[in-house]
Design goal:
Helix content of chain A: 25-40%
Distance between the termini of chain B: 46 Å
Helix content of chain B: 10-25%
Distance between the termini of chain A: 19 Å
Strand content of chain A: 15-25%
Number of helices of chain A: 18
Structural class of chain A: alpha/beta
Largest interface: A-B, 67 and 61 residues
Structural class of chain B: alpha/beta
Number of strands of chain A: 24
Largest sheet of chain B: 7 strands, parallel
Shape of chain A: globular
Oligomer: heterodimer
Shape of chain B: globular
């Protein structure tokens, strides 16, 4: 392989050797050594070719059998949520969190309150409450929380993000009691046989809580950037996504970037509905057509400034399948979220509005990321793309985020129109059993059809949609390979893919979707030295061992941003290094 | 529980402020209707909240107001955004120097107006009326639309009255036919009785009554029967002699009075027994006579 050694290369700062190096390059998928200089990959290939690049200043990293890969790329998620949850207690069930019963939940809350120095009257907020994960065989009651927190309102956000468990203090602050009727489209759950609120409130009964929740200042939010980024770097992610950016989020992200607070790259996708507010704030004199962006804004897309870039515009067409707010063409087997019969969800935009938005964005050359979960939402989006004149040969890279429940024939249409899916395979684990109940096994098995999409030559990425599911690249691999639910049901065995293919969805294909395949996503000379060091080779272990693989170190632009470099030693003379490594 | 002072609710300045919720499909004429109200009578102390999720062309300037209290509601799915647009807009209103005397919420054309209205009392404001604007020209095709038809049908739930628009673009026979058709469709919906309709774009009159003494079912029925065709909607909870344990829901439109069989909930306390009725009648009617004991 080319070592770029011809014209006085910069000196190698780091050289990795002594373990599997998965390049994600089709020609040379494995290498023996990799050299880094000035934030980029200097050389990658056989040890005999790379190790001689070492000079006295080179730091030699003996992998000791550990595995080096390109840093993972978050193909879709919500960094803004990371800034929120780092201030909250994590009460998710394993594997996402530590809570297995009411006692552990209470312990986590108490520890969080102590750690945060909670004063009387202040809110205690936690996320990921899942009654199904409690071994006690019953959901929480407010009396489980009241003795611990008599003087603090407690809010435990339900894992659906559509409701919360409250203690008595919070209920009384909200004014919810036995005499409060359930609002339309919402529920105040009562103690059995009474009208006394038990603590859980859902949907329209939950929404009014946001008014009471603490509002951190921009300065407090800025202080959270290290912890929020660590959620990503600790899992080997070197490019994160803010996949539904509001006007106020954008202001915060730009400020954080300008102040040098970003250590990893962050890709922002402004929400289409927030675009007018973003423009008004930055270009008060500009009065264009709806969704018309001024030239400087269009040109700002696609380039990083201090690790932050705008890449495309985010459209939302429907809700979530587990919340039954996705938009399907056929009804579910179970009632809708408010007990509706023959429920098939609903779109968030009518077709005429969507068609207009897609046409206006596409004609300005803006990349579109469209959230579509149900097949009807996908069909609406395909129709809008067709009407806007989008075709595959234009290389517009319109991404259909989730592409979750597709029906036969839709992937072929993706090929014609040039649409590409970002899949969400961890749904098999987290929500697979729920999908089978709602949709039946056959429809549920069509979720995230990765093997079929790849067979058609589509560029498929895979995502966690953080904070909807935890940041776990290894679980993305596992679920892409096994498609197994919590209960052990396999959803669509024909769509299982190999570890190598599943890894591409987290690296080179994810890079392609944000037009960074030339600089990221694989290990090749000249590409960014964004790397992750794993304790084991994910292509060499059984799928169920994948989530046990530890991240040893994460490197962004050649700098260690998380963990430790093992076996790091000053460079020995090149000849001896080569000799040591020779088989 | 020890009395620890909590931060008072940040929406305290808005407590009891009356709210009008205006729902209806995109392009049905919600903005035109609200603009008409604001033009006819100056309402410098009103605030208008606009939610344009679905239209994409947000332009708060389009509302002709002379006080600048037009706020946008941001929307989106809660799962991803972890925020609530209505609450944020109300917080902004509560923070203004002078609280509004009335809040008009124009829902998104894709929203279920009833679900927006349901949050109003939970925020401590008073829901005065919920109306849906119906575009007579498009309603029939929207009703059967393969993409959005079911959503269009769900938008009619719980509305107090229908405000018909764009009748001027149709001939009289078509208007009559559409009205009849719409009534039939609404009556067929689950739990459906068709709300009253109004063509006059003036804001209907809304009065409310606090009932401090119990009333018999018979007296209530007799009073309601006398309200006549001016009545668009009567709704609320009454304190009935026959049911001392709690308030009983009442709902009337089109001459029919629906009374729940018994209390839907207990009184908050024995000292807080009180019925509350809202009576919505056509614009231009005088103050109502309530069914006090002396009158009946």
């Amino acid at each position: 392989m080319d070592t770029n050694a011809a014209i006085s290369p910069p000196p190698a700062e780091l050289i990795f050797h002594g373990g599997p190096i998965l390049t994600l390059e089709r020609e040379h998928p494995r290498a023996e050594a990799l050299a880094v200089a000035q934030g980029r990959i200097l050389a990658v290939g056989d040890a005999a070719a790379v190790l001689p690049l070492a000079c006295p200043a080179t730091r030699m990293v003996d992998l000791g059998g550990r595995c080096l890969l390109p840093g993972f790329i978050d193909a879709h998620g919500h960094f803004a949520n990371a800034l929120q949850v780092v201030a909250w207690a994590n009460i998710q069930r394993p594997p996402a969190g530590p809570v297995s019963d009411i006692a552990t939940l209470q312990a986590v809350l108490t520890a969080h309150a102590t750690g945060a120095g909670l004063k009387p009257g202040q809110w205690l907020v936690a996320y990921g409450y899942d009654p199904d994960g409690l071994a006690d065989g019953r959901p929480l009651d407010k009396s489980d929380l009241d003795p611990l927190f008599p003087d603090n309102p407690v809010l435990l956000i339900h894992n659906s993000n559509h409701g919360a468990m409250l203690n008595s203090r919070a209920l009384s602050l909200m004014g919810y009691d036995a005499s409060t009727p359930d609002p339309a489209g919402g529920v105040i759950v009562r103690r059995t046989g009474t009208r006394e609120p038990a603590g859980l409130v859902m949907e329209t009964a939950f929404l009014p809580l946001f008014v009471h929740m603490p509002k951190p200042s921009p300065e407090e939010m800025l202080e959270r950037f290290p912890a929020a980024q660590e959620l990503y770097t600790s899992k080997g992610i070197t490019t994160a996504q803010e996949g539904a950016t509001t006007a106020s989020d954008l202001t915060l992200l730009q400020r954080a970037a300008a102040e040098g607070r970003l250590v990893i790259d962050l890709v922002s996708l402004p929400l289409v509905l927030e675009v007018p507010a973003m423009l008004r704030e930055r270009f008060p004199e500009f009065h264009g057509e709806p969704l018309e962006l001024p030239q400087p804004v269009r040109e700002a897309f696609g380039a990083y400034h201090n690790h932050l870039k705008l890449q495309g515009i985010k459209l939302l067409l429907d809700g979530s399948p587990q919340g039954k707010t996705a938009f399907w063409s056929e009804p579910l087997l179970t009632p809708g979220p408010n007990g509706e019969t023959n429920w098939r969800g609903q779109p968030l935009f009518p077709p005429e509005v969507l068609n207009d938005a897609v046409a206006r964005l596409a004609s300005q050359g803006l990349q579109i990321f469209a959230h579509c979960n149900g097949d009807a939402a996908i069909a609406m989006m395909m129709e809008a793309c067709h009407k806007a004149g989008l075709r595959a040969e234009q290389d517009h890279r319109t991404i259909i985020v989730h592409s979750q429940f597709m029906v036969p024939g839709q992937l072929e249409r993706y090929v014609e129109l040039g649409l590409h899916p970002s899949f969400f395979t961890v749904h098999a684990f987290f929500y697979g059993d729920v999908h089978v109940a709602n949709l039946g096994l056959e429809r549920a098995s069509r979720m995230s059809p990765m093997a079929s999409a790849l067979a058609l030559g589509l560029h498929c990425s895979n995502h966690n949609d953080f904070s909807v599911t935890p940041i776990e690249p290894m679980r993305m691999l596992e679920t892409a390979m096994t498609r197994r639910s919590r209960k052990g049901l396999v959803l669509g065995a024909a769509e299982c893919v190999s570890a190598e293919v599943a890894l591409r969805a987290l690296t080179i294909e994810a890079a392609w979707q944000i037009r960074e395949e030339e600089s990221k996503g694989s290990l090749a000379p000249g590409k960014r030295a964004d790397l992750v060091l794993l304790a084991d080779d994910p292509t060499a272990v059984a799928p169920d061992a994948l989530t046990g693989i530890q991240v040893v170190a994460t490197i962004k632009d050649g700098n260690l941003v998380w963990g430790q470099l093992p076996g790091a030693a000053p460079a020995a003379p090149p000849s001896s290094a080569v000799r040591t490594e020779a088989p | 529980m020890t009395a620890i002072p909590l931060t008072p609710t940040p929406l305290a300045p808005l407590r009891g402020v009356p709210v009008t919720v205006v729902g209806g499909w995109l392009g049905s004429g919600k903005t035109t209707l609200i603009n008409g109200w604001l033009r006819q009578t100056p309402h410098p102390d009103w605030a208008v909240l606009v939610n344009d999720l679905g239209s994409l062309a947000i332009d708060a300037d389009r509302l002709r107001t002379n006080h600048g209290r037009v706020l946008e509601l941001s929307g989106g799915c809660l799962c991803c955004s972890l925020r609530d647009g209505l609450g944020e807009a109300l917080l902004a209103l509560a923070g203004m120097a002078r609280p509004p005397a009335h809040v008009v919420i124009e829902t998104s054309g894709m929203a279920i107006p009833e679900q927006v209205a349901a949050q109003v009392p939970l925020h401590g404001l008073r829901l005065e009326r919920l109306l849906a604007v119906v575009d007579l020209e498009r309603i029939e095709s929207l009703w059967h639309d393969p993409w959005v038809g079911e959503l269009v049908q769900r938008q009619f739930r719980g509305v107090d009255w229908l405000q018909l628009s764009k009748a001027d673009r149709l001939d009289a026979a078509t208007v009559a036919q559409r009205r009849q058709w719409l009534r039939r469709q609404l009556e067929r919906l689950p739990g459906g009785s068709a709300p009253a309709t109004q063509d006059d774009p003036e804001l209907a009159r809304s009065d409310h009554w606090r009932q401090d003494r119990p009333l018999s079912v018979e007296k209530l029925r007799r009073w309601a029967a006398d309200l006549g065709p001016e009545m668009l909607r009567l709704k609320g909870e009454v304190w009935l002699t026959e049911h001392p344990q709690g308030p009983v829901r009442v709902d009337a439109c089109g001459g029919q009075l629906d009374l729940a069989e018994g209390p839907s909930r207990p009184w908050p306390s024995s000292l807080r027994r009180q019925g509350r009725l809202v009576l919505i009648r056509r614009a231009g009617t005088g103050p109502p006579i309530w069914p006090t004991l002396e009158d009946l």
